[in-house]
Amino acid sequence: MADTAAEGIEELHINTPEEENEKNYKPPPEKTIGEILDTDKDDESLQKYKEKLLGDAKTGTVVVGE
Asked: Are 41 and 47 in contact (CB under 8 A)?
């Protein structure tokens, strides 16, 4: 005998907050490495962080994987 409670009920999908965020997410405009490095030049700690994060990117040696 089939489960009568589930008969005739279509699959119910409830959007979670994470799914709503994904639907509403719009990525920021793309920036060049130079633009990223030039932003917030007066913030020394941020500049150090960018240097660590971007490594040799400012010299033009950028490797982007697919």
From this structure: yes
